[in-house]
Input
Amino acid sequence: MDHSDGSNSLLGPTTHEWRPDVRRVVHEVLNHVPGVTANTYTDHPQLLFKLFPSVRWDLLSVDFWAEGGRGHALDEHRARSALRYQFNRPGRPLIRHLIFQHRLWTRWGGWSVWAPDDHSGAVQHLHVTYLP
Output
């Protein structure tokens, strides 16, 4: 769970910095789906930073949470609204992958299972990473 400074023991500090086109989509989603907040964090997502360290993935990745912000579970209805909005909007940026309710969607493979328990219960949220 988050500490008051927006960090936790495993993940980096919370930020709200995105590439301009990603920031535009984030604001569109926030305006379209009431009660949703968004953030990223340093080295987000960590696995991509380890595999491709030259890309600033945190500028391309967004976590959508409930009104309380990072660490406040996002209900299924709002998450699905945010997901549909992003899937249906025309143009760039294009989604690289997303994770919701133990399901992973990738541009190259469609839907599959996301086994880690990092999107459940109190930490349920919608994660989206856009293409560099």
Q: What stands out?
A: Residues 1-9 have pLDDT under 50 and may be disordered.
